[in-house]
Predict the 3D structure of the following.
Amino acid sequence: MSNFLIRTEQLVAGWQQPATAPLDLSLGTGQILGLTGPNGVGKSTILGALTGRAKCFSGEIHLRPGLRLALQTQDVPPVNGLPLSGKELLALTGASPKGLPPWLLERLDQRLDRLSGGQRHYLSLWTILQAPADVVLLDEPTNNLDAAGTEHLESALRQRVAHGAAIILVSHDDAFVSAVCDQVLVLKGPAHVG
Amino acid sequence: MWDDIFLIPFLTGLCLALALPVLGCFLRLRDEWLAALAYAHVAAAGALLALVSGVAPAIGGMAAAALAGAGKRFFSERLAGGAAFALLLLGGWALAVLLAANQPLAERLGHALFDGQLYFSGSDNLYLVLPWCLVAIPLLSRLSRQLLLARIYPDYFHAQRLPVWPVVSGFDLLAALTLALATMTLGVMGSFALVFVPPWIVFRRARSWRSGLFFSALIGAIGYVAAFAIALGLDQPFGPVLALLLIAVGLLIA
């Protein structure tokens, strides 16, 4: 595929030592790629390697020149005790509130630590999802989301790629992955990637 | 109170009373409020060292604090978790006490630095503090988005292939120099009170970051004006009056 945004060839990534099986992937504009598999096969490590945080032990990563990435990790943003409103959080990455569900839109003036865990998670996720980026990397985006939140996220992801971005998401939620992803890579362990 | 003799010290302190609480909000955001004490002690030690060496104390204080602020980045791996500030505090305190114990001149200046010497601030000090605060406050406001991003989304800069060190090192240097200036005007604890208490109140009460910065500066300024008037009226040292007043306000509204 010549029109790729990201391509890996036999990528083996890790932090202190190799933690993944060799991985080939290719991602083009408008695509949503899902990475699934059991705990410990290195799904989050792959996202880390693509952003340059984790180490690439062997193989290659090709990024389109000038590619802008945005990464949402599983870490909870440290906003407890911080006087930061929802509007101010969105402004940090330049994310637009347009398209947010009504149950969040009406709370944008509140401090983040006054929101519920699910509301805070969705707003933090939205801030990265709508950041100016060509590829958005999401790590377990459905954590803490109820059915309404998950449903809204599905439609938001489709709209994001319809506007020219691409998405790689890591998730244990098989139903969510099969509902939104154009292609799915199942990481099966250190010896094999299916 | 409004004679020239008190007007210049009053205006000098007022500039710092507006800048220090804003700086304190960013230090608290970064869990670095101990930096206020650390840089203040390093600045005090640098000023005493300069005095003993025949150099102007202000130059020595600012140079020592700047060196500490810019240099701590090179030891960040070994000094994670706030250890850098604890070591700077201990080192600055130890050096300052040793210099004061062995040099009569340094002993006098040492007392002045730790207790504060606001009433003795001259116009030369005001001409240094005023432009610095006029630069520091807008600069902090300009760095605000990047400092918040670095705290809330630490991976953002990495993912966007943007270097985070100019933001962090720039802030460290700004904090160190501001605290050095403040220490030589308000003293170690007077500066610490303004860096710590107003941000503590607004982090609990403010509805947003922007309003938090505004109210932090406002609390600092009102507390400062009240403490200046009380200390002058009752002929008491300024630093302890300011600290007690801010603590009382904090306990009432935080």
Summary: Chain B has one domain: 4-253. Chain B has a mean pLDDT of 90. The two ends of chain B are 31 Å apart (CA to CA).
